[in-house]
Write a structure and sequence with these properties.
- Keywords: Dioxygenase, Oxidoreductase.
- The longest helix has 18 residues.
- The protein is built from eight helices and 14 strands.
- A hairpin with a 2-residue loop joins strand 8 and strand 9.
- It has about 300 residues and is α+β, with helices and mostly antiparallel strands.
- It has one domain: Jelly Rolls.
- The chain is globular and about 50 Å long.
- The strands form three sheets. Strands 1, 2, 3, 4, 6, 11, 13 and 14 form an eight-stranded antiparallel beta sheet that branches.
- About 45% of the residues are buried.
């Protein structure tokens, strides 16, 4: 029996590779998260370079603090960690990939009004393939997301199309050339909704988002997770620091020492690009870009 999703919603996810659930998280929690984001901004005001907590926009200065991404926000905020472990987030995921869930990573993408950086088209799976593909990302929409403020966009059904080439000039650039992949921007679907909604997308669906040129922020927290019996594959960038650390990321259910192995398309995410760090830095190795670059 499903906890929250209908049979139609589960079937849609299987076929299209994504879902949007409106008004999933209470606004009082969203208000607390916005307070946490204000705290992160205060921290950034004293920074001159990105570190292992906060990734700064290229146009950042201490006088005008600009955050591109907060890294692993669940380790920096009890509110964000508590939400990740709640049924607001986990119940629909259990309906899609089962009762035993493990964390891959978390990130808060800021996409601030007027300059929020674009993310080029990519598949999460290109970065971290696993032994099976019950791997997905839940996006918590912190601000109302419309076509104007750079929403997450996906190409429906591409999670069933294999793995596209994310290399450029012989290095892993973490982005694909739409024309070379045979994809047309006109076919992309924006995942929009009011604050408190969540999106869910399969790790292999092609997705990206444009620069935010609007006057409104578009902040989103991604909780990336997988079935507990999905183990990282050598050649990918999935975290592996030993079984103890791996099991410490269990979100619900039970761990296992028996990986479930399913035939899945994969490409090795190597050699590394010259610029390393967050996806924004890796994608600087991409030649032809689909989105405008922030100034």
């Amino acid at each position: 029996m499903s906890e929250v999703l209908s049979a139609e919603q589960v079937a849609f996810y299987r076929d299209q590779g994504y879902l949007v659930l409106e008004n999933r998280v209470p606004m009082e929690i969203i208000a607390q998260i916005r307070d946490e984001i204000a705290r992160f901004r205060d921290v950034a005001a004293g920074m001159t370079a990105s570190d292992d907590r906060i990734d700064l926009e290229d146009s950042h200065s201490p006088a005008d603090p600009r955050i591109r991404r907060v890294k692993l926000p669940h380790t920096q905020s009890q509110v964000i960690d508590d939400l990740m472990r709640s049924d607001h987030i986990l119940a629909p995921v259990r309906d899609l990939i089962g009762p035993d869930l493990r964390l891959q990573t978390t990130k808060l993408n800021m996409k601030s009004a007027g300059y929020g950086a674009a993310v080029e088209w990519h598949q999460d799976w290109a970065f971290y393939p696993y032994t099976n593909d019950d791997v997905l990302a839940v996006g918590l929409i912190v601000d109302d997301m419309t076509e104007a403020n750079g929403p997450l966009m996906v190409f429906p059904g591409t999670h069933r199309a294999g793995v596209f080439d994310h290399h450029h000039d012989g290095v892993f650039a973490g982005a694909i050339d739409l024309q070379a992949a045979g994809l047309d921007m006109a076919d992309a679907v924006p995942l929009m909704g009011p604050a408190g909604s969540i999106s869910i997308h399969h790790a292999r669906i092609v997705h990206g988002s444009a620069l935010n040129r609007s006057t409104r922020d578009r902040r989103i927290i991604f909780y990336e997770m997988m079935a507990a019996d999905a183990f990282p594959v050598v050649g990918g960038k999935g975290r592996w620091e030993g079984i103890e650390e791996f099991d410490s990321r269990l979100l619900c259910g039970a761990p296992t020492l028996e990986p479930r192995v399913v035939a899945c398309p994969m490409r090795v995410a190597l050699p590394d690009a010259p610029t390393q760090g967050s996806i924004y830095e890796v994608q600087k190795a991409m030649g032809k870009r689909s989105f405008e670059v922030a100034e």
